[in-house]
Design brief:
heterodimer, A: about 110 residues, mainly alpha, Arc Repressor Mutant, subunit A, two-stranded antiparallel ribbon, 5 helices, about 50% helix, B: about 130 residues, alpha/beta, Hypothetical Protein Ychn, Chain: A, 5-stranded parallel β-sheet, 4 helices
Chain lengths: ~110, ~130
């Protein structure tokens, strides 16, 4: 497995760049993973990433994009819980990119 | 499996079929429970009429207060609570399986419908596809 070095510590990622160990995650790593995805983290990005961390903690899975959108709408409001908004933040797929930045495994039920 | 694919092809697009996933095994020790759950989560993307059934040791999959630290595997019992968000809300358990293991609905991590064996048989007979683990 490849290793990456962030802020003087090294971390294992899988062949697609997802963090191997959920517990290794911190904000520095999130910023690093976001750079790899060419995403510049703003407060709005952090809201979604932190939401995903909470979702994973509660359900032990990374949600499919449809489920993520619905859950974000419920938590952060309909102006954020829609495809347009989430794809603007994460152009290559909110579930895939935001999950990666949040240090989660690839979403279940993502096609 | 090939029969199932044939069935799906015949229907064409937009046809909703009744899919039932039957869980018969304890959550850990084999991969069936976790893999079966993942199949159900993926199936949600196809907008079908999906139900899950828990019979025999499968009822243990839904038990509350699981701690898997000692066996060093992931506790995926919380994931059953995510099913609602995937619009999979038809969860059935068989009463005889619960009784034989001294369990009641209060011991389970999600809301379920408890059916007796005859009701369960009728429900299975109504399905287009039944997949059993």
């Amino acid at each position: 497995m490849p290793m990456v070095e962030v802020a003087g510590k090294s971390f294992e990622v899988d062949e697609e760049g997802y963090l191997t160990n959920l517990n290794d995650w911190n904000q520095d790593i999130a910023v690093y993973l976001a750079q790899e995805e060419k995403v510049e983290m703003t407060e709005n990005h952090w809201d979604v990433v932190n939401f995903l961390r909470e979702y994973y903690d509660e359900y032990q899975i990374a949600p499919a994009v449809r489920v993520l959108t619905k859950a974000v709408a419920k938590k952060l409001g309909p102006e954020k819980g829609n495809n347009k908004y989430l794809y603007e933040l994460f152009p290559y797929g909110p579930a895939k990119q935001a999950c990666k930045i949040a240090g989660l495994p690839k979403p279940t039920g993502c096609i | 499996m090939s029969d199932m694919m044939d069935d799906m092809d015949e229907g064409g697009e937009g046809v909703v079929k009744k899919f039932m996933f039957v869980n018969r095994k304890a959550p850990h020790g084999t991969i069936y429970a976790l893999e079966g759950l993942e199949v159900v989560l993926i199936s949600a993307a196809f907008d079908q009429d999906v139900s899950m059934v828990f019979v025999d040791d499968g009822v243990y999959e839904l038990i509350k207060g699981v701690n898997t630290k000692g066996i060093e595997v992931k506790d995926f019992s919380k994931t059953y609570r995510a099913l609602e968000g995937y619009d999979i809300e038809k969860l059935y358990v068989e009463k005889a399986s619960m009784d034989a293991r001294g369990l009641t609905e209060d011991d389970l991590i999600v809301d379920v419908t408890v059916l007796d064996s005859a009701e369960m048989a009728n429900l299975m007979a109504e399905q287009d596809v039944v997949i059993s683990y």
